[in-house]
Amino acid sequence: MESSYQLRIPGPTPIPERVRRAMDAPMINHRGPEFKALLKELEDGLRWAFDTTHDLLIYPASGSGGMESAVANLVSPGERVLAITIGAFGDRFADLAQAFGADVVRYALPWGEAADPEDLDAILAKEDDVHTVLITHNETSTGVLNPLQQLASVVKQRGRLLVVDGVSSIGSVELPVDDWGVDVAITASQKGWMVPPGVTMLSVSPAAWERQAQARGPRFYFDWTRARKLQAEGMTFTTPAVSLLFGLREALLAMREEGLANVYRRHQRIAGAFRAAARALHLGLLASPDVASPTVTAVNLPPALQGARARELLRTWRERYRLVLASGQGPLKDRIFRIGHLGAVYEEDVTTAVTALEAGLREHGLEVSEGAALSAARRALEAPEAAVPR
Ligand SMILES: Cc1ncc(COP(=O)(O)O)c(C=O)c1O
């Protein structure tokens, strides 16, 4: 049955019919030849999507599990680590490293801003004993995309290991792992991959393997050495999320058919259309255009619609217009709403969502000229490539 809701949250994302059908298949032996072939196909497909030659590890876990695996394998207790945080998920990475006994230096920015490569360089110049840098590529809580290529270049010039939370970016936003010098890149199935939650995927560079061999952090479930050895034999340590992996295989096929460059362009175009609609509704955007995320848009609510009214507005969208949006997190709770537009989201979904957005706002007393948001969104969708509004 098709969902009667438009799920426009930044994950879990809608599952295409072909992916759902692929998951509805008889179970197989996870120590048998079919699973071995499946795992190989997934590793190859993910290497293609990550644009990497590095090892690809796959675990039954959510994205936070992938992040924890990186800390457990790379960071020794007492070691100084730099965590760049621009929102809730950056904070999570920093807290995680702290929980594993790292001495965490935080380069924290106000929510809504991106990290600055020059500031990062100045920090690393002072912090000689920081060997590892943790960073969020796309901060889902604020809809900000960090300038990862420039930040990565600073980290590499300073000779440090770079660990990237690409949970809500990889597969939807360009992140050529090898080109940009990313040592560990982490993502999760329920985002741009169009698969239900439950699988985390990460790439590990040769430099990260060297570090891993020296690191003394406690690890068991997420021991990368064992995972690599078993994956080379065509299996996994624990029971894998077999049905989700059937889905992932189909989703990767769909991505190959569309072409990665087209997938990235579609995300950019749709994000541009949502931003144009918000502007036409006279709503402010949390992120400035140069760092606005292609996968999630954070929209400021006018003062009259903040607090309890924000929750009522989300309920109106959900109950009357069948549009499910995400609320703000942390300090932005009840002050913003977020539109998720990653994975299986297409031009026609923008039209439906924007129509509902406008209707709900009008119902809550916002004076908006009828159809203005929809026209703005359509213009943005039709704009030639170079003119996609940021
Ligand atoms: C940027 C980012 N990092 C990490 C996570 C955590 O992933 P999970 O909820 O799959 O553990 C999320 C999930 O929303 C995310 O968006």
List the ions, cofactors and other small molecules found in this model: pyridoxal-5'-phosphate
Low-confidence stretches: none
Cα-atom radius of gyration: 21 Å
**Averaged pLDDT, please?**
96
Total tally of structural domains = 2
Query: So, CATH architecture of the largest domain?
Result: 3-Layer(aba) Sandwich
Please give the largest β-sheet.
7 strands, mixed
CATH superfamily of the largest domain: Type I PLP-dependent aspartate aminotransferase-like (Major domain)
CATH topology annotation of the largest domain: Aspartate Aminotransferase, domain 2
Class from secondary-structure proportions = alpha/beta
The number of E-state strands comes to 14
Offer a few descriptive terms.
390 residues, alpha/beta, Aspartate Aminotransferase, domain 2, Aspartate Aminotransferase, domain 1, 2 domains, seven-stranded mixed β-sheet, three-stranded antiparallel β-sheet, 14 strands, 44% helix, 15% strand, globular, binds pyridoxal-5'-phosphate
